[in-house]
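Protein fold
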Amino acid sequence: MAQKTTLHILEPADRDRAVLARLGFDAGFHCEIYEDLGELLDAVPRNGVVLIRDDGPRSAIPELVSQLARQGQWCPFVGYNDKPQVDHVVQAIKGGALSFISTPRTCEDLAAAMPRVVAEAEHRRDLLERAVRACHSLARLTERERQVLEGLVSGESSKAIARFLEISPRTVEIHRSKLLGKLGARNVADAVRVKIEASAYGALAA
């Protein structure tokens, strides 16, 4: 038997939360419900898709993305509200939402909206999780360590990096050793891979 997709419903209003959960169950999904962002972040979903209400200025999407990035995690999410406006939709998608829908009123509405989103989430999950972990690792570097890493990514030697940064080659080696440790990299090639994965985050999330 195929495993049901889980919908993680983040809806502040009790009645609307209950209605969405019922529609989700009727549409064949397993549903978990959350009253606020803190409740969701207490146990970041490792599967399924998050449905999150986005009412413009009160949107929880920016905070969701920020908190997930801070934790080095990613989860697919879809914004919704009763009357989606173009600016809300654009901002949500730019913020990392896979899609944006009108608040579902029937199980057919939900069933029609979700298959493409679920498929896209599964396609992106591995790449984005790696990219977010890479961003989280890079955020631990000092400014000087980032500068040394940029030089390594560009294929520069320690001596060339030292000349550019006006420090000694020995100091470059010290920074290199520290940044490799922070990135969990065994060698420069691993560090370059982490940098590339982090750089890919924007394109993958868009």
